[in-house]
Amino acid sequence: MMDFVTRHTLDLLTGLAMLVAVFIAVRWSTMPVLQRLAALFFIGIVAHLWEEERFPGGFTQLMTDKVGFTATNPHFGEMVLAAGVLALTFVPLFLPRVPFLVMASLLLGILEAIAHTAAIWMFKLDKLYSPGLVTALFVLLPLSLYGISYAVRNSLMTRGKWALSFLYMFGSLLLAQQLAVRASGMPYSEFLRNIKSNFAG
Prior knowledge:
By secondary structure, the protein is mainly alpha-helical. The protein has one domain. The chain contains nine helices and no strands. It is globular, with a radius of gyration of 17 Å. The N and C termini lie far apart (44 Å).
């Protein structure tokens, strides 16, 4: 069973995204705005993973070429990534009245747009594209900007809640990244050094 899950992680996430799409199509008019945003963002992040890994794909190969990160079991890395995605973007769907959770996922949308844009010059790519850039800029970023502005306009967040949102996002990403890197056999400190050297270069 676990082998099936690890080999079909993205397919399972896609099935879940389809169920969410049906859910919001049926319940849209009765859903709070933050729940709508959480649902749309989850669907968007699954589309983003498809762009990164499958169509056109190449994100894993990019990391291998530029950072020296080679996953001994890429399926395990996908499963860890999926767990992080579920924690950050699926859980808030059921807790729309806990705004810091929804904002944590929307902060991820801002980060994805920045990271994929920065990757173009950081990794000295030949064209103005890194795998995942289109969905990051034209799906995740607009949802994030709208959702964050909605929260600000309606005074849904305090400074403390924004701090919680950032910590939840950062902690989830850091944990998933560390698990994936360490499972590959690469020391996490070496991974960070390679990122730093690419950034400096």
